[in-house]
TrEMBL record:
The keyword Transmembrane applies. Residues 299-722 form the TonB-dependent receptor-like beta-barrel domain. Belongs to the TonB-dependent receptor family. It is a multi-pass membrane protein. It comes from Neolewinella xylanilytica. GO terms for cellular component: cell outer membrane. GO terms for molecular function: siderophore uptake transmembrane transporter activity. This is Outer membrane receptor for ferrienterochelin and colicins. It is found in: Cell outer membrane.
Length: 786
């Protein structure tokens, strides 16, 4: 027994035999296992060295090469980690590290990335790609150059098609009510026509473009924002502040640029139908087709109908005007060598709009039997872009539009035709380095004719014809990776007013991580007014229109400071703060005088100056759980100074706010809550005896929507105007006597107070600050073939 044990022990040392004695089978098996174990350990030690300390350093950048700050960097399988600094640099030390490490890079708004490190690592250069929620928008409105929004020296606000789907509306005009600092303003309680107020300035001070072309003229501001199927809209860009250096007259307060999709990017077929409990029906249809390998076309049709007159406030007038509108939009795109652009688009809009006393019908147009306002509108537009086949980068842009309007306002008949032709040739050399040049020449022709004294003369009718050639140049300097400067100058030769110069300066600063950006702009703008195409009050027939001398062009100087800050490492998600302050001073401001004579509107250049100043802030939050929220506030003061008398502008709020909250509640389900709030406005009264309030109350329009998405379908519905806010029933003065039959006038036109008219009022529908349309339900569906 002792010998066996001794033999076994010796066999474990590696000997198969001891002095000729035989080892049993158990000893033999143990010997084999020992050999295998020792061989494995020897091989493992030769393949993997002993752990040792490891230092890994490098830099995290975005796809543009800029450093990405706040990236969480962790070594998989360990508790070791760190964060990148503002330049994207990082250093991590791993004690007793293996030869192969896996390092994980994560940050909200970027796709996660894992890097494997072996041997003696060199400095890492890690590129993170932004997620869709953080991809930088491309903008063109600020400088006529296609640049990312973060690189634009001009502050441009971008609103996607998804933003507008949160509160579906029949037109972009109504959808703009959820943009901070922008307010769709109704100008008449009867026909409900309106314009866009931007930072407190009326519609004529805002230029409306489609695909960068100024196809919208003063006669048709609201029609430029109606009739475009929203499924064909790529985005809407808003620039606040003068843009006359690039776009000429009318871009004094800012511009709204509706960018439609390229035909190749649209759905093969789409339809969106929505109806409301008030009987409104809106239908959008889109269709894309290809003609050969290089030509693509998209066709969009919009139809809106409302034919159920309502008088919920009991004033005897329709609460909102009846409308029957159809619009056809067709855009073509041609693929060309070297990515040269060739697009062409056409649009036609027809609208029949009618409002007035509940018993009014089209057979009473222009008569004094029943008061009503009836507007027939026919409008066509052609516009496009063509890159010339030349070695240098020359681009031709053009637009043509014709607008015909046949309107009656009580017994006043207004018939007008307007034609606008615009052409622009730009030169953009492909320079490299710190300089970027853009130069161009432009020509704009405006022909206008109507049946008023505006185009009349002693010898008969004399239509207006305005020629406006111009040239502009802008130079973009990249002073350093963090500093940019844009200088621009435009020269126009107005056939009525001679030479006009409009300079601009824009400066942009950003930090290393591009998450903090400061923009400063100084610019000059000008505008030549046409009262009858811009101010609905001049056409209603309720007052006589008077011009106090020849109207001179308005001019303005603006200073705008914008600060944008993105917070990526906030726990709930990505927070974007966008704050702006502005100051604009106007000379030769043209304002209507409602107070001197209650029966007249007197237009004249202001013998003094006007000011629009204020501040705004937007906060956008994109949370990791899919919730998005946006809130914005604007404080503004718009006033005139004449003979040392300071007076606030009518129908202009001092404070306003907007918000939207989008919450995914389950797979395919989403709830959208949107709204706005407006502070008091000064309202136009008819004299010191007018019993109506001189100020509007605080009011808010709020909307709630629920959506359910399927693969190709989306069903939606909700409530508009949740608080059921409407103006008071006495908004229309003397609605019971629209033809002033029982009003007594003095020889100078002043109204005589009588027992039947103790407040010395006349019929007046211009006391309007909000829609008479109350709470209503809506439901709709969308379907698309991609």
């Amino acid at each position: 027994m002792r010998r066996k044990t001794e033999g076994w022990r010796r066999s474990a040392g590696g000997n198969d035999y001891q002095k000729g004695k035989r080892i049993n089978s158990l000893d033999r098996l143990g010997c084999i296992l020992a050999v295998i174990l020792l061989s494995y350990l020897a091989g493992a030690q030769s393949a993997t060295p002993m752990p040792h300390d490891r230092v890994v350093a490098g830099r995290v950048v975005g796809i543009d090469g800029g450093g990405v700050a706040g990236v969480t960097i962790s070594v998989i399988g360990t508790a070791v980690g760190t964060y990148s600094d503002e330049t994207g640099a990082f250093t991590v030390r791993v004690q007793e590290a293996a030869d192969s490490l896996s390092i994980h890079f994560t940050r909200i708004g970027f796709h996660p990335h894992t890097e494997r490190v072996t041997g003696s690592p060199k400095p890492l250069y890690v590129v993170l790609e932004k997620t869709a929620a953080l991809l930088d928008e491309v903008v063109v409105s600020g400088s006529l150059r296609t640049v990312s929004r973060s690189q634009s020296p001009v502050a441009v606000e971008v609103y996607s098609a998804e933003f507008f789907r949160a509160n579906p509306s029949p037109s972009v005009f109504e959808s703009l009510q959820n943009i901070n600092g922008v307010r769709p303003q109704l100008n008449c309680n009867v026909c409900n026509t309106g314009d866009i107020h931007l930072n407190g300035l009326e519609g004529p001070y805002t230029m409306v473009l489609i695909d960068g072309m100024p196809i919208v003229s003063g006669l048709s501001t609201v029609y430029g924002l109606t009739g475009i199927p929203q499924s064909l809209i790529e985005r809407v860009e808003v620039v606040k502040g003068p843009a006359s250096t690039l776009y000429g007259s009318e871009a004094v307060g800012g511009l709204i640029n509706v960018i439609t999709k390229l035909p190749a990017d649209t759905d093969r077929f789409s339809v969106d139908v929505m109806g409301t409990s008030w009987g409104e029906v809106n239908t959008d249809m889109g269709y894309r087709t290809a003609i050969g390998p290089s030509i693509t076309s998209m066709l969009g049709i919009n139809y809106f109908n409302y034919e159920r007159p309502r008088d919920d406030n009991g004033d005897g007038f329709t609460d909102i005007a009846l409308q029957n509108r159809i619009s056809v939009f067709n855009k073509w795109s041609v693929s060309r060598p070297d990515d040269r652009i060739m697009t062409f688009a056409a649009r036609y809009v027809y609208e029949d709009r009618l409002g007035g006393e509940v018993g009014f019908d089209r057979q009473f147009r222009g008569s004094d039997n029943v008061y009503g306002e009836s507007i027939y509108t026919n409008r066509w537009e052609l516009f496009g872009t063509y890159d010339l086949p030349l070695p240098a980068a020359f681009r031709l842009s053009y637009s043509l539009n014709g607008h015909s309007q046949n309107s009656t306002y009580g017994t006043t008949i207004y018939q007008a035709q307007q034609f606008v032709g615009f052409g622009q040739l730009t030169y953009h050399p492909e320079w490299t380095g710190a300089h970027d040049l853009l130069a161009g020449i432009a020509y704009r022709y405006t022909g206008y004719d109507d049946n008023t004294f505006a185009t009349g003369s002693e010898t008969g009718n004399q239509p207006s014809s305005v020629s406006l050639p111009g040239a502009f140049v802008q130079h973009h300097f990249t002073l350093s990776p963090r500093n940019q400067l844009l200088l621009g100058l435009r020269y126009d030769r107005d056939s009525r007013h001679g030479n006009i110069l409009t300079p601009r300066l824009n400066y942009k600063w950003s930090n290393h991580a591009e998450d903090t950006q400061l923009r400063v702009s100084i610019g000059n703008g000008y505008r030549v007014a046409n009262v009858f195409t811009e101010d609905h009050a001049a056409l209603t027939g309720a007052r006589e229109t008077v011009f106090a001398g020849e109207l001179r062009p308005e001019t303005s100087w603006n200073v705008n400071v914008n600060l944008l800050r993105k917070v990526y490492d906030w726990d709930p998600g990505i927070l974007t703060l966008d704050a702006t302050i502005w100051y604009t001073r106007f000379g030769n401001r043209i304002l209507p005088d409602y107070d001197t004579d209650p029966n007249r509107i007197i237009y004249a250049n202001l013998n003094g100056h006007a000011v629009s100043k204020g501040s705004s802030i937007n906060a956008d939050l994109s949370m990791t759980n899919g919730i998005t929220a946006r809130i914005g506030f604007t404080l503004q003061d718009v006033y005139t100074v004449e003979q040392q008398l300071r007076q606030r502008q009518l129908l202009t709020e001092s404070v306003s706010g907007v918000w939207s909250l989008n919450v995914p509640v389950a797979k395919g389900w989403q709830v959208d809550y949107t709204g706005n709030v407006y502070g008091p406005m000064d309202l136009p009264l008819l004299g010191s005896l007018d019993p109506r309030s001189p100020k509007s109350p605080w009011f808010s329009i709020q909307n709630l929507q629920v959506r359910r998405s399927f693969s190709a379908w989306e069903l939606y519905g909700g409530i508009k105007n949740l608080l059921d806010f409407t103006p008071p029933a006495n908004a229309i003065a003397r609605a019971f006597d629209p033809f002033d039959r029982d009003v007594d006038f003095q020889p100078d036109g002043a109204v005589v107070p009588t027992p039947e008219n103790p407040y010395a009022l006349t019929f007046d529908p211009t006391y309007v600050y909000a829609s008479n349309q109350g709470i209503r339900a809506f439901v709709g569906f969308r379907y698309r073939i991609r």
